[in-house]
Amino acid sequence: MLYLEWLIVVLKRKDGYMEESAVRMKAYAVAFDEIRVYLSKGYYNGISSQFYIKNIENDELIPLNGDSLNNSSQDGFQEYVFHTNFTMGKVYKVVDAYGLSCYLDFSKLSMCEEFDELYFYDHNDLGNQYTKEKTTFKVWAPLATGVILKVMKWNGETELFPMKRQKKGVYFVEVCEDLELEQYVYLIRHTNSYEVTLDPYAYSSSSNGRASIIVDLEKVPCRQFDLPVLEKMTDMVIYETSVRDFSMSSTSGMKNKGKFLAFTELNTSTDSGNPTGLDYLSCLGITHLQLMPIADFATVDEKNPLELYNWGYDPLAYNVTEGSYVTDPDDGYMRMTEAQRMVEALHSRGIRVVMDVVFNHMHDVNINALERTVPYYFFRRNEDGSLSNGSWCGNDLNTTALMCRKYILDMCRRWQVLYGIDGFRFDLMGIIDQETMKLVDAQGKALDPSFVVYGEGWNMPTALDEEMRTTIQNNLKTPYIGFFNDFFRDTLRGTNQMETKGYFSGDTYKTNDAMKAICNLDMFAKITQSINYVECHDNATCYDKLQISNYDESEKIRKRRSRLMMAAVILSQGVPFLHSGQEFFRTKGGLSNTYNAGDQVNALDWNRKDMEIDTTQFVQFLIHLRKNNPCFRYGSYDMIRKNVKTENINHRMIKYSLHQNEGEYKDFIIYFNASLETLQVEVEDGFQLLYHSEKGKILDHQLDVNGVCLAILVR
């Protein structure tokens, strides 16, 4: 065992000091019967009369027959092609006529069409399976020529366990001792050196992804509350927040700042005594809390979480929770139980939890466990072999690869079953193929009919056929998956350019488009697919944007415009989505992209809620109205056509009429006046004024709808 560890160190050193310019020969298996050899032109002009393949295990030397490719050069190397047979899992060298040799690299075989057919592993036993008597370990590494399990014990001892190759490229070992809470990594050899990697299927890890941790799953049982069935997605009211941002401010009244446990605290309040935290969410009336990434991400030091800041869209691992959100990131159980307690607390208030997942890219391919276990497989490649970069983060996950798709499904199931997650919001969902997304949705609904899946359907320049991408343009192919409605956002608020205006910021030329956005008629396969929003974590808040786009207006008018936007989000047909703090005019100091801007910018200032209590109560009122009147939550376009109508009043104001057979009222007429002009309307018999921004009154069947005003009439 000691020799093995010494060998690993020596080989790593050797590789680490090898200059690329000193490399004279490279050899790759590019198909299961084809080898490509590259000989440096600085070495005998790149010419060798003969090549051999050598099995290191038995020293068998077999001549290779093939051809030098004319006019073929790769960075100063002459290319040769040979057809031969080899056995996966064995170590080979390629030798030239002068005795120069190099190890045969199998990594590019993962890009072969037949790879999935040969090595797809459909069992559900990858990772570690713990009992007190023994723990079994399985890792899928079909390209590897050797795998060693390294266990680091609490007493400082290290043990190495060579793993045995099984069918489908799975490596296996059984350790017959109690390994609870011990740390481990895999040492995986692909050529002549071993790479250290985490277990992609481990349930827990130590701080900053240093090692995987073995836990007893019987000590972290699944805990779920029976919640009322979600009949349709339009019954949702989504509220987005970050675990860190939610509680980090000194104004939050919460003790566990920046932690999962902040969501479990009761009776928290502002200095003025108004509720914050869980109590506030419960009072607000939302149905779903969307949490920005809670899976392990890379650029926050979990041991010193206050030193660096990031939202978490830089995933390090999909299989474990983020350690900076945990009381002790080195405690294998806390990583799991504290996240469970958060979900449990939200469920106890009737609030479902949506997890923001980033299955489109990883932080760093080179150090990632997926790449190190099976090189070139889990990340999408262009035709020239370079990494696809539709995410603009350096890489895209190769979701059409069967084991990559299985991994996504396995992780989604884990978050749903073990942690009680009720839905997924997919970041940059347009990079992911439709088949994968439909399987995620089907799996989730099979476990829980109320499960929801939605995401960003932007058409990103990834190396995947456009017809296969899960984009808004392709929404007819994924009718049960929701999409963030950028037409709704851009029409009502304006584009992400700070200076641009939408209807509610005063561009009344967009009145007709705004009417279309409010009803969302035939924009999707189903109305339930439309996630309506004007503000989210990305880009500037509405308050900050209005500071720029409507700089010449008073603060009072700008706030009224913001209220109109929130009213439209909550009362329009489709699924309403609110960004945390939007309801009390959250500001980020005018900054647009604050993913790493720090707590001073991103932390929720709960004192603003005290200052804007009327607006917060206004949002509560609107949510109550939506939840208690099904006319705002129609689940089909047929019902909308039958019961909903919009009219353009003087090319400035929208009249939004709704009818229902059950609810608090039979009929609604809602006036959205985004202009600065006061417009007078005729009020039909039987209608009463439920809400008016300026506390107007109906006189002689006439109502003045003031400039930048919302009026709600009911009958």
Describe this structure in words.
The protein has 715 residues and is of the alpha+beta class. It folds into three domains: 104 residues, Immunoglobulin-like (Sandwich); 82 residues, Sandwich (Immunoglobulin-like); 369 residues, TIM Barrel (Alpha-Beta Barrel). The protein is built from 16 helices and 33 strands. Helix 7 packs parallel to helix 8, helix 9 packs antiparallel against helix 10 and helix 12 packs parallel to helix 15. The longest helix is centred in the middle third of the chain and has 18 residues. 49% of the residues are buried.
What count of structural domains?
3
Kindly provide the name of the CATH class of the largest domain.
Alpha Beta
| Topology-level CATH name of the largest domain | TIM Barrel
Task: Tell me roughly what share of residues is in helical segments.
Answer: 10-25%
Mean pLDDT value: 94
Low confidence ranges: 1-18
Task: Note the gap between the termini.
Answer: 82 Å
**Which structural category fits the helices and strands?**
alpha+beta
Strand content: 15-25%
